[in-house]
Structure formats: C-alpha cells, structure tokens
Amino acid sequence: MRSSSPLPRMSRRGRVTIAVLVGVFVLFTLLGWGVQAWTDWLWFSEVDYTEVFRGVLVTRLLLFLAAGLGMAAVVGGNLWLAQRLRPRIRTHSPEQATLERYRMLLGPRLGLWITVAAAVVGLFAGLSAQSRWNQWLLFLHGGDFGVDDPEFGVDVGFYIFQLPFWRFLLGLGFTAVVLALIGSLAVHYLFGGVRLQGVGDRMSNAARAHLSTLVAVFVLLKAVAYVLDRRTMLLEYNDGVGVYGAGYADINALLPAKEILAYISVVVAIAILVFSNAWMRNLVWPGISLALLGVSAVAIGGIYPWAVQTFEVKPSARDKEAPYIQRSIDATRAGFGLDSAQSSAYAAGNLNPPESLATDTSVVPNARLLDPQLVSETYTQLQQVRGFYDFGPKLDIDRYTIAGNTQDYVVGVREINYGELTAQQSNWINRHTVYTHGYGVVAAPANRVVCGGQPFFVSGFLGERTRETCSSPDDQIPANQPRIYYGERMQDGDYAIVGRPNPDANPAEFDRPAGDGGEGSESYYTYTGSGGVEIGSFGRRLLYAIKQQEANFLLSEAVNENSKLLYVRNPRDRVEKVAPFLTLDGDPYPAVVDGRVQWIVDGYTTAATYPYAERVNLQQETTDELTGRGTIQLARENVNYIRNSVKATVDAYDGTVNLYEFDENDPVLKAWNKAFGGDLVKPRAEIPPALADHFRYPADLFKVQRNLLTRFHVTNPGDFYSGQDFWQVPNVPDAPDSGQKQPPYYLYTQFPGQEGPRFQLTSAVTPNGRQNLAALISGSYQDGRPMLQVLELPDQTAISGPVQVHQRMTNTNATIRQQLNLLSSNQAQVQYGNLLSLPFGNGMLYVEPVYVKSNQQDAYPLLQKVLMSYGDGGSYVVLADNVTDGIEQLVEQGRQAATGNPPPTGGEEPPEEGEEPTPTPSSPPPSGGPPPPAGDLAAAADRVQAAITEVRAAQASGDFERYGRALKALDEALTAFQQAQGAPNTGGGSGVTPTPADSGAASPPGG
C-alpha cells in the first residue's frame, strides 16, 4: 500500500501560472536594473567619470560573486555531504516512520532542493558583500598613516583600511559555519544520522565527525575573533571616564584575558575533534570542552576585568586612567585636525568703549549687518521679477575684491523653483522644455543697507533698474554666462530637455524678462553648453521614457534629433554621484570665478576606526538652527577621523564637475584616488588661483571641531577627568528656550594675533553650565592652509555670552526696550540677525542687527536698527540707525564714564550732519529762558523720541493706517515737549513738521 504524500500536488496549470509570474517578475526586475545601469553609464560619460561607474560596478559584481559563490559552496557542500553520509540502515521507530514520508518527498529531487537552498543563501550573502565595496577598495589600496597606535605599535592604517574588512570576513565566516551546521544537522536528522528516539547511539559516526568538525571550525573562528578583539578594544567606549579607547582595566585585565581565551579556543577546538572522533567518540567530553570555554569567557573575560575596574580602578580612577585619557586626547585631536589649533589667552579686561573704536579700519567697518537667513526674503521680493524665481531659504556669504577693496558679500542665485509654477506653467512641456534655468548671481555688501533698510545690490540685475540709489549703477560682479541650469533648488524629477531641431527654429526656453518687463518682453534662449545626455535617437528616447516613466519622450515634438537631457542638477547630488566615497558638506555655495558661476562643495574623507579617537555622529554634531533652512542635514554617520580633503566644483551652466585635492597628506584620499586609477582627483597645484580665492572654511567640519574643542581643548588628563574646564555651545541668543545651537557665522574681520582682516568662520562658546563667554573659536585659511584659532578668556571673566548679551541689550535698558516694543506691533514684528562677538581693544564688541517685517502679504524684513554693546553686554548699550552712529554713541558713553558720569540710558540717535539736535533729557532747551523742571522735560523728550521711532517703524511696515496714527502721536508729543519748555505751540494740528532728526522718516510708506 502506497503512503500518501504529506503535501498536495499542484496542478500543471498552477505550475505554469507560477512560472509565468516568476518569469515576468524577473524580466521586469532585470529590465529595471538594465535601464538604470545603461542610463548611469550615459550620465557618467557626460561628466567624464566613467572610471567611477566602472570601478564601483565591477567591484560590486566581483564581491557579489565571490561571497555568494563562497557561501553557497560552504552551505551547499555541507548539505550535500550530510546526505552522502546518511546511514544505509536505519532502525525502526515511530520517529523514523514519520520522517519516511518527507524522505520520499525530498529524496528524488534532493539535489535540486540543496541547490535552491545554497543559491538563496548565496544570494543574500552576495547582496550583503557587494555593499562593502568601499571597505574592499580601501583594504586593497590603503597604505600607512605614518602613525602607530599607542598600545601595539601598529600603524593606524591597519585600523582604517584593513580591520573593517577583516571583521566583515570574520562575520561572513561565522554565518557560513552556523548555517552549514544548522542545515547539516537537519539533513542528518532527516536521513537518520541523528536520532531523538530508539536504542543505541543517537548519532552515527559519520554525522558525529561531520558536525563536530563544523563546531571545531566555529571555535577556531572564535579564536580569530579574540585576536581581532585585542585590536578593536582600542575603538571601544570607556564608560569609566567617558572617552573612547581601552582604559586601565581593559589593558591590564581584558587584553590578557582575550589572549588567554584565544589559546583556550584553539585547545577546545582540538579537544572537540579528538574526543569526538579519535578517542572516546562521544559528545560528553566535547560538551565539557565547550562548557569550559564558556566558563572561561565569563570568568576571565568578564568577572576578572570587572573586579579590576571595581576594586582597583574606581577608587583612584583619576590616576589610573590618566595615561589612557591622554591617549584619547591625543588621538582625538589628531583624528579631527585639532592638534594644529592655535590657542592664545585674551584677557578681555577692558569694559569701557575705547576711543579707537571710532577710528578702527579692520573690525568695525566690516561688521556684517545682513543676515543671510533673514534677507533671503528680501532678495526674493526685490530681485525675483517672476514668481517662479527663488533664492532659497538661506543665502551664502563669500568675499570679493572690487576696486582693490576686499569685503564679504551676501550672495544668492536666482533659480527656477518648480514648486512655484502655476498650474498652466506646470504642464510637461513648460516644466521640462520652457522653464529650464535661472538667471544671475545677486550680491550685496554684507555691511551696507540703503533705501530704508534694503541691501545694496551690486550684481545679477534683470532689465531696467528704476531706483539707482538702491543698487549699483553697473554690475560689479559680472558673469559672462549667468544662466543657472544646475542649482540647489533642483530636485530629482526636475530634468530639462534642451536643444532645437535646426538653427532657424525659434528658441523655446524662457530666459529672462527684458525691456520694461511688460507683456511680450520676455527673452528666450537655446542651451549651447556641453552638458546633458543626447537623446535624439529613438533608442535613447525609449530608454529615458522607461527610466522617467514618461511617454512624452516618444510622443512630444519638443524632443528632437538635437535634444539633450539635463538631470541630476543639484550640485551636491552631482558631486555625490561622481565621488560616492566622500561625505559632503551640507552648505554648497556659489561663486563667480573668471566669469563663470561655480558651485563649490566641500568634500570630507572620513573613517570610524581611528584608535582611541572620540567617535561622533555627524548628523547630531552639525544640526543647529539653520539645518533644513538652506543647509542640508548630514546622514547619521559615526566617524572619528575627518579631513576636508576635496574641494569640488560644479559649473552652473554646463554641469562640469571637478574634484581638486585640498589636503595633500590625507592617506584616505590617496587610497581612493588609487582605487579609481590615480587621476580621479586633480592635484592641488591645478587649482585655479581665482577659484582658491573663494575657498572658505567648511561649516560642518567647523561645527564638529568646535564641539570637540569644548572638551578637548583640555589637554591635561587630570583636568579632563574633572571636567571643570569644559565648555558648551550656546543656544540661539534670541530664542534660547528652543534648544537649538547658535550657528557659526562667516565674517571678514581681524582677530587679535592676526596680521590683517581675513575671511573666517567664528563661534562663541561658554563655560559648561554657565552663560558668560569662555572663548571665541575661528576657522580660516592662511596661505591656503586651514587654521583653527582659539581665543580663551579668563575663567572668572565678566564678559557675557551671546544669550546674556542679547537679553541685557533688549531687556535691561528701559529706553531701548521701549523702542523695540514700538518697532513691533500687530502689523509688524521684530527679527534679530546674527549676534556678532567681535574682540576689540582688549574687550568685546557685540553687534546685532534688528529687522522689522510687516505682517502684510509679501512683506520682507528691512534692517531698521543695530543693537551694539561693549564690555559685559549691559553697561554700554545703544540702539542706533547704523554702525557708525552706534560706535559714536558707545565712544561717547565711554568718555562720560571716564569723567565720572554714568553712561546714558542709550537709544538716542545723534543728529545727522548739518541738522539741529532733537531735544533730549541731557540737552538744554533751545530757548534762552530758564530750564523747566528736569523731570517734566525728560518725560516729554522720551515721548518725542518714542514717537519718532514709531513713525519710522510705521514707514518700514508699509501700513498707512499705522503711519497716520504715528504722525498724530508725534504731533502731540512735540506739542507736549514745547509746552514743557515754556514755548508757544507752533506745530499746530496735522500740519506739524517733525524735527530734523525725524527727516528720514517723514515720507509716507513706500515713498
């Protein structure tokens, strides 16, 4: 009687259906992969980086095949061996009777099942291995660092280039042995080599030999793991002192324990083989050997190091851990480039504004007033011209030399924002063939405002300029090719199709408004650059129709025989694609270099296995107030070594990508360059001088270094252990409760110890847990080389930190607080720009621009005032119209303090040249009679000043109703002031003429 099959048989139709479905799935998968690979090859051919595409693809394929075939061979070979070693005669038992049905099902096609199982395992192993292409290339091409680790004397290059791939191979070996062991055990059990029931041995000799050999191999791999663990101990976190690297207990207890366990593992592996097969031929002694290894691992590798840490290290951790803390300090400073930081003391003992403030030519004139985050709206409203143009949520800071004068500029690129196209403009033809590019780089000096608080634009003009006083009469930063086909506002789907069928055809791409900007005044253009992939042939059009899932590539007449496709248009994405081994800075910036608009992208080489160095998360360390507002958030990558090794450029017109070597001594970059043929990255000597003039210290690298310097500026291990001298990065001054860190800011200025002004990235830090100022950190380039400078203030300094300064400037002075309150209302809001901390005259000068933005639709911020302070942030404070006036008031306050008079309340504005002064509490009445009571006159003068401030704020807001109320209030205030002086009222009604000090605010809004 035939036994029934344990599983129902599938009908032929069902098998055919499944086969067809699987075939269709495989076909479309392969088609998708093929289309992606082919289009990638065309794109890399366009940018002339095919060696990257070929190198990565070949390496991934080889790793996939090597790991996949190797894993399949190990697992499949052991499964095949297990079924070959099955016993010829099996004892009868209910267990075997149950298994007989499965043997009958699998037996006829056992080879096929083994092949399928091995293929599946190999597939997943290959997929895992191919993702390690970067580790393999570094393993193959990495060299020495020339620095030895402090414990074993092994070159750091082993940890960076070799160790990660060895650990991967070890993990792959463990996986192969475990899967082979589990699979072999299952096959032996299925065919009777291993039994759970019955008399006699529960395991055949062949099965015992096979399985014990696999267990022995696993234990030998464990011995290798213990050897590698001795190296990886230098990368682990030391909880006892809060640094990375092996500590006292690790070196003196765990390190020898790992060595002992490695020897024990070898002995246990031999014992398993001997006791299982050559001597007693049972599993009792092999089990005892494994138990011994487990007990040894717990006792030697766990309990003993814990006892040393608890009873020897903790009672005197400061002394015991000192050498290992020193190792971590040295390694961290070397891994992150902090060892070259120049630290110097800055007493900052002067709390009185010096006379030299008024005559300074290096710090005060260069104080940056335009905040690149706030004035982005202003650029958009004043330089947008069309609603689909956009400057992004944050502009960039760069410096230019014009007419022999070098200063910093706020720079923005007028790009196409496809999200702002109207419904009619967003159809496929318009979106991809008409609105293809932006136009112009718009720049304004960072320290100058005109026309009621607007930037003074000097470049990127479109059409006629109606108000020459609000902009330069000529283009001071001219671009020979101002069209922007590649920019930060471009997303993945924002491709452009350019080119016309013949020279006589009309241009189809909207270029820019021309003439008076009215209907029919648009200018059109045809792309003539070298960028883009040619898609004129039917095959190319079909290829990209599949890739983009868009039939118009085949159907639309806009795609012709001369058409090119421009895609991957974001500069950061473009560099990331040609250099996938780089970590890119989150803030690319544009520069006009030799008449071409170039995007400059800073590229970092990183590693996570530098022995004893602190490991940080790049995303966490670089996130601050600007993240996501024009600055891209970095990936969650853990690193303990970073170098700004590459300066990359992307041409905004044709998309050309260039990679320039910036750090000539970085072994990681040398390994990557070697891996891709040796000429992937251009030598530093080939950097054009005009381009090098626009290099700036990268923001994300500076954030990481600044954050680490808050701890690792302490180089004495005892002081580091106590943590008393640690610093912290302050929160945003005008919103400290937000928890967001204050971003560093670019300045063109001169710090103490510097020979002249330089373009530098700066940040203030405060003592840990306190708000006073601890140090100023700056990063700049000197003779083309990066330089970190730390100005350390005394521990008990009276100088306030950024949060304290902002609070004191805006809250402690009654007059200033009143004026700020008047600037803000239901129709307008006050916004604060970058709070600049500027060391000057052995003291500290603080500058914070004050913007006013109306709540009306399409309103934009206008710079109305400048908050300035000197010293501790509270004694000398002014709210002025501009920096010059503010400096004069600060110096005057300093003079009064020097003569024994207390500084004035601040906030009063000095008259412009040739004007009569506005009466103030400290000035006598203009009449020749006796002065009225001081209290009445002072109150009346305060009321006049407040009314003047409100008139100016109303004018800036554009609110006519508010402006009328402000004029009425000014009329009443002047009447009250004149009455307080004892003079007749000559103002009278609505026809009152404001005092000369208010002449700049007497015109109606928009006038």
Could you please describe the fold and organization of this structure?
Helices cover 41% and strands 16% of the residues. It is an alpha+beta fold. The strands form 11 sheets. Strands 3, 25, 26, 27, 28 and 29 form a 6-stranded mixed beta sheet that branches. Strands 18, 19, 20, 23 and 24 form a 5-stranded antiparallel beta sheet that branches. Strands 30, 31, 32, 33 and 34 form a 5-stranded antiparallel beta sheet that branches. Helix 1 crosses helix 14 (538-548) and helix 5 (133-141) crosses helix 6.
Helices and strands, with pairings:
Layout: H1 12-47, H2 50-84, H3 94-106, H4 110-130, H5 133-141, H6 156-190, H7 205-232, E1 237-238, E2 243-244, H8 248-278, H9 284-313, H10 317-320, H11 322-335, E3 342-345, H12 375-383, E4 389-390, E5 396-402, E6 405-413, E7 415-416, H13 428-434, E8 438-439, E9 441-445, E10 449-450, E11 454-455, E12 483-484, E13 496-498, E14 509-513, E15 522-525, E16 533-534, H14 538-548, H15 552-555, E17 564-566, H16 571-578, E18 583-584, E19 589-593, E20 596-607, E21 616-617, H17 618-622, E22 638-639, E23 641-651, E24 657-661, H18 667-675, H19 689-692, H20 699-712, H21 717-722, E25 727-728, E26 745-749, E27 758-767, E28 775-782, E29 785-792, H22 802-812, H23 814-823, E30 828-832, E31 836-840, E32 843-854, E33 862-870, E34 876-880, H24 883-898, H25 934-957, H26 960-981
Helix pairs in contact: 1-2, 1-14, 2-4, 2-5, 2-6, 5-6, 5-18, 6-7, 7-8, 8-9, 22-23, 23-25, 25-26
Q: How much is the radius of gyration in Å?
A: 37 Å
Largest sheet: 6 strands, mixed
What overall form do the CA principal axes indicate?
globular
* Strand residues, percent: 15-25%
How far apart are the termini?
A: 107 Å
Number of helices: 26
Helix content, binned percent: 40-55%
Which regions contain 5 or more consecutive residues with pLDDT less than 50?
Answer: 1-5, 905-934, 983-1007
Quote the average pLDDT: 85
